[in-house]
Amino acid sequence: MKDGEIRQNKATKHWVIYAPSRGGRPRQLERPADRERSVTVVGEGCPFCPGNEHMLPPIIMEMPGQGAQSWRTRVVPNKFPALTPLGDTRRSARGIYLVMPGHGRHEVIVEGPYHNRDISEMTGEDADAVIETYHRRYVDLMKEHENMMAIIFRNHGVLAGTSLIHPHSQIIVTPMVPSYIRWREEQAERYFDEFGRCVYCDILEFEMKDQRRVTLENRSFLAFVPFAAEVPFEIWIMPKRHHGDFGSISDEEKEDLSSVLVGSLAGLRQKLHDPDYNYIINTSARFEADAPHLHWYLQIRPRLTTQAGFEIGSGISINPSLPEENAEFLRA
């Protein structure tokens, strides 16, 4: 299995990606003991740093910089992709099982030329460029007919799955809609059928009134620790304007999203000593963008605890801290 494939669990209908090339990923996980490190321009042997372009695949997109820095963000194909644009999306049977080629896209968004300047430390214009890059790549990739789902995500720290220190995000596009996302959309649809309202809009309205779990707010977004947060200091950043598709974000909202995202990540860095975390943009599947029951949002999940046997076996999370206390701590 040289090029990878996608197999379906016959009992659960979950798809599993097999990507042998991922085993060759680089590791640059050595980090200074002092987290209050100075920002360096170039990291030795880092393919994302200026001057090391010969180590990169062909650049797909670049946001221009100013002054000595010729670029603000770059997008390149992942050298060790989970999915590739080779092959097609046809399913086939293998005995009693279902399988398809490992078709899709996997890109890396290099968030800036500085080797160890995290997004939580960026200026407004540089953070705006990151969000603009997310949006442009999302819109371009979702124009392709076979692309059914685009996941934009960021892994920060060893526990979150980072293999290179240089700040970067990723986008993976799949030829099918994962069952977890279908389930989440179906739950929202059931709520809409029962109450005639978007469940996320109801959550947003309640949190804005209640305020106990709110951490940040601006004209377009509310950041809050969800009422049933699965992990300590989980944060949702939710747009106040209802829409299911991240691709619909306006220029004003892009600026506001970068502001509240930087503020939220800076709060985690300052209050929790730069914890490992993942963040994900939860958006609608293809053809669901205009569904009245869907509402996109960005989810931050710090890696402060480890799932144990009960959680793995039951699917029930155990959170040792209360969301209200987490939010109060972050606001203080």
Describe, in plain words, how this protein is organized in 3D.
The chain has 6 helices and 14 strands. The chain is of the alpha+beta class and 332 residues long. The strands form 2 sheets. The protein has a 10-stranded antiparallel sheet, with helices on both faces. The protein has a 4-stranded antiparallel sheet with strand order 2-1-6-5, with no helix packed on it. A hairpin with a 6-residue loop joins β1 and β2. α1 packs across α4. About 3% of the residues have low confidence.
Summarize the structure.
The chain has 332 residues and is an alpha+beta fold.
Number of strands: 14
How many individual helices?
6
Strand content: 15-25%
Segments where pLDDT lies below 50 for 5+ residues?
Answer: 29-37
Q: Which range best describes the helical content: under 10%, 10-25%, 25-40%, 40-55%, 55-70% or over 70%?
A: 25-40%
The chain-level mean pLDDT equals 92
What is the overall silhouette?
globular
Name the helix and strand elements from N-terminus to C-terminus, one letter apiece. EEEEEEEHEEHHEEEHEEHH
Query: How are the strands of the largest sheet arranged?
Result: 3-4-7-9-8-13-14-12-11-10
Helix- and strand-based class? alpha+beta
